[in-house]
Amino acid sequence: MRNYLNLLKAPGITKVLLAQLLARFSFGMQTIAFVIHLQVTFHNYTIPGIAIGMATVGSAISSPLLGRWMARSGIRVVVLTGAAVTPLMTLLIAFAPISPTVAVLFSFVLGLGTAPIQAAARAVYATLVGENERNTLFSIDAILQEVIWIIGPVLATLLIATSNTIVPLVFMAALQIGGGLWFGTLHEVHNAPIPRSNRRLGGVLRQPVVQVSIVMNLLFVGAFSALEVGMVAHVGQSNAGFVISALSIGSIFGGLAFGNSARTPWALSKQIAVVLLGDGLLFLNLNDNLWLSVGMFVAGIGVAPVFSTMSAIIAKKVRLDDTTEVYGWISTGQNIGYGGCATIAGLLIDHFSSVSSFAFATGMDALCLMLAILTVKMTPSFKAQV
């Protein structure tokens, strides 16, 4: 804990962390707010499902492109453009008398225009601290990400329950504007000494460490989505929130306790093994929701450390002028994994059982662990340089 407190005292760190948190916070509300609002509007779940899917597709397409744009034109112009496009689409979905086709189109444009705040923040982090402190800073970032996914859905449902479906969308738009402006205009962001890349778009994909990182993020995030879909089907909607939240709580605990503990090239493999252990615990007592929560908590202990270590690997192995594009490609991998594995999990549940989705998620994490072990030679050491 002392390492975290000392790091937060460094100039500019706290401002950048809080600004990127505010700019990204609406993502935690987006899915549930869009689904409920569009379901009330069109009286079915098909349109909301397609709309969320198209927003994910749009983000998957634009993430590396916007990351590349940041590397060429700077972070500020991309973030401020996103701070205009995203809230505009959100407000149009909230207030415009739209047809199902237009709702899906607005969602797609929203995904395309979403500024890659996380990619930008990770690139800026590397300019604010030395190599020895980066893993700790990435760990704090991963912990804040879990805060978004714990508080966001709860806040969205609370606003809907106490008002109507439009209020959370307006609140999201305000966060997108305020957070985007704050983050984009920070001195530490605008003047970050990130060299302008002259590499062709997609050139970074030739690097083995980038290829491995994209695949591992796809597998790792895909496992989460399959597990979440399966848990809703297995324990019911009324209990799913409690059980799934245990994963995020475990992640916060793991981030605080072990987030900056990566030292050797084997650190990532050990962290993924913890997640896989939690997956396996689920099968010991599938009929006890409390036990399922324990399994999710144990799996969560490895989540934030895994994300922070994977980010630290990119920061150490990839040239600074290429990092924004690389993080964009990683985001694309995460989006593909999240959407694709959720779809596969749904098919498994419909044709077999909810438990089959747990097995699928466990298999994805097992593949991720195997890949980490097989590529350990390209994983850098994180021991402090003296």
Describe the structure.
By secondary structure, the chain is mainly alpha-helical. It has two domains: 12-194, Growth Hormone, Chain: A; 205-380, MFS general substrate transporter like domains (Growth Hormone, Chain: A), CATH 1.20.1250.20. Helix content is 81%, strand content 0%. It has helices at residues 2-8, 13-24, 26-42, 46-73, 75-95, 100-113, 117-128, 131-162, 166-185, 187-190, 208-235, 237-258, 267-282, 289-301, 303-317, 323-351, 354-374. Helix 4 (46-73) packs antiparallel against helix 5 and helix 13 packs antiparallel against helix 14. The longest helix is centred in the middle third of the chain and has 32 residues, at 131-162. The chain is globular, with a radius of gyration of 20 Å. The mean pLDDT is 85.
**Rg result:** 20 Å
Name of the top-level CATH class of the largest domain: Mainly Alpha
What general outline do the C-alpha atoms trace? globular
Largest sheet: none
State the order of secondary-structure elements, H for helix, E for strand: HHHHHHHHHHHHHHHHH
Low-confidence stretches: none
Specify the helix fraction band: over 70%
Could you say which structural class the secondary elements and strand pairing correspond to? mainly alpha
The number of strands is 0
CATH fold-level assignment of the largest domain: Growth Hormone, Chain: A
* CATH homology superfamily of the largest domain: MFS general substrate transporter like domains
Number of structurally distinct domains: 2
Roughly how many Å apart are the termini? 22 Å
Compute the number of helices.
Answer: 17
Q: Give the percentage of residues in beta strands.
A: under 5%
CATH architecture of the largest domain: Up-down Bundle
Q: How confident overall, as mean pLDDT? A: 85
